[in-house]
Amino acid sequence: xxxxxxxxxxxxxxxxxxxxxxxxxxxxxxxxxxxxxxxxxxxxxxxxxxxxxxxxxxxxxxxxxxxxxxxxxxxxxxxxxxxxxxxxxxxxxxxxxxxxxxxxxxxxxxxxxxxxxxxxxxxxxxxxxxxxxxxxxxxxxxxxxxxxxxxxxxxxxxxxxxxxxxxxxxxxxxxxxxxxxxxxxxxxxxxxxxxxxxxxxxxxxxxxxxxxxxxxxxxxxxxxxxxxxxxxxxxxxxxxxxxxxxxxxxxxxxxxxxxxxxxxxxxxxxxxxxxxxxxxxxxxxxxxxxxxxxxxxxxxxxxxxxxxxxxxxxxxxxxxxxxxxxxxxxxxxxxxx
Amino acid sequence: xxxxxxxxxxxxxxxxxxxxxxxxxxxxxxxxxxxxxxxxxxxxxxxxxxxxxxxxxxxxxxxxxxxxxxxxxxxxxxxxxxxxxxxxxxxxxxxxxxxxxxxxxxxxxxxxxxxxxxxxxxxxxxxxxxxxxxxxxxxxxxxxxxxxxxxxxxxxxxxxxxxxxxxxxxxxxxxxxxxxxxxxxxxxxxxxxxxxxxxxxxxxxxxxxxxxxxxxxxxxxxxxxxxxxxxxxxxxxxxxxxxxxxxxxxxxxxxxxxxxxxxxxxxxxxxxxxxxxxxxxxxxxxxxxxxxxxxxxxxxxxxxxxxxxxxxxxxxxxxxxxxxxxxxxxxxxxxx
Lengths: 337, 336
Known about the structure:
The complex is a heterodimer.
Chain A: E1 4-7, H1 17-43, H2 57-64, E2 72-74, H3 80-85, H4 90-97, H5 131-145, E3 151-156, H6 163-175, E4 179-185, E5 188-189, E6 192-193, E7 213-217, H7 221-236, E8 242-247, H8 259-262, H9 268-276, H10 279-291, H11 295-318
Parallel strand pairs in A: 1-7, 2-3, 3-4, 4-8, 7-8
Antiparallel strand pairs in A: 5-6
Helix pairs in contact in A: 1-2, 1-10, 1-11, 2-7, 4-11, 5-6
Chain B: E1 11-15, H1 16-30, E2 34-38, H2 52-56, E3 61-63, H3 68-80, E4 84-91, H4 99-106, H5 109-112, E5 121-127, H6 142-148, E6 152-154, H7 159-171, E7 175-181, E8 188-192, E9 204-207, E10 212-216, H8 220-235, E11 239-243, E12 246-248, H9 252-262, E13 265-272, H10 277-289, E14 298-302, H11 311-317, H12 321-333
Helix pairs in contact in B: 1-7, 3-4, 8-12, 9-10
């Protein structure tokens, strides 16, 4: 098949130990954040509902590791990992999850709507596939204005069945827009097995548009990074969009608390086999065995990230709830009469 | 023999669509981040984008595929990252195809992000019945769009207003829906040849009067003005006609002050009756001007059905001048 390839796992020879440890640190930060959020949910201290990213960390970190600060991402309802990978402040994220005035969105957005425009984070998004046209538009602006930025659009296997994916691939292809569409195929669309409701493959959906479709092991941060590197380089050079399908697995619920209505819907053996392929555990092993990183170094990073998240939680807890009057602000740039 | 010096006229009689094309060109001239995209904007079926591609090139004037959801959404991403896109949806009925991106994205992202982003974009569309276009090309979706929260909604009634309001819409840092009433597309009026902006949220008294306030929207404004002249002559009724020009933001004070003076209100809205703009206007006036009202506020609207095809049927469900006349007469006949 033209343009279609499966990227194999490979250690990028150009990466220094510091760069490798940066990848590890970001994945550990996401894991620590999500683990803490899960605890908060179970305690009943978190308003609303949350979709956690545990098990998928390698996708966000691998893709964002090749981006500049001025590059952009659009994210999903399961977005905490993308935001942390792009450099978001975990204290303001935690404050937002707890509905505080110091949160990224002053408590107006919550888990599914965190934004940091200064970091090029154009937003998590509560609508499945909602970020696809927005990322395409950011690519359009770069193209019209002649900038060399790129935009990475994260979306899920569920969103692959939204019409806007095909529309966005078409538009990006005809206009040669610098957008990298990264599908995190975690095999479940809410509580449905995606393969039961999806015809054909996802990476293959790029091919009729003449867009490269790349399939990559989404639990291998270096493989994701290598695929993203190629796609980003191509986009910056004016080569247009790429679709990357990263195969991964969400180890936790679609949304926390699902067990009260979902019952078991995934085979235990499936969950166990993917948990054995945990992206952080796998990368730790490689850092030890192939890069000579000491176990103590990794434990120190784990501890440092857990402390960072504890500090974030303290910041959030010590922050004020928003003023009720603030609910009527921020709708328009100039408030209408 | 010497000829008089040739000077450009200050105003000229201008078609509605040409006034819009002039505003687009002025906006693209004054700000190079303004771009126009949409279905057939190069060809320009009704003329609003005519000549733009020749003048500004294909980088800033782009024919887009018929992918309303993605093109509408791409304006959000583009506006968030430095462009001021103006998208032509051709027919406002097509907003329904793109409503996730209109309501969940364009209208929400500033608020949901706690004010971190501004989205300077304009969704432009021909709107309303244009003569046997039937139910999927005749919609006036302004009531639905007013209800979304986060969109400004502009619906002009004269070529002069159309030009000034479009320049203001493009300069506005918020998402704006700008509707061109297709019944007005072929009408003419005096338009200044200079660039000018009319602020959003400022209505205009199109005809002063003392007996009854008629608030009319888009193509019902000229209808109301004609009825006002007729009733002045036949019944001696002095009708004040107000055009709000923009529905969000809405110039409530202009309407309230008029109704407090006249004591009577008729709202003419080219849209279905249920939860229409007329419903909101009559409710707000009732809340704010109750003590001044001498008669029941009345509404002249479409029937609550889709727009049918046959000319005989279409005319039976939309606003007609005689309905406005009957409502004004009933309003003024009712004792206080």
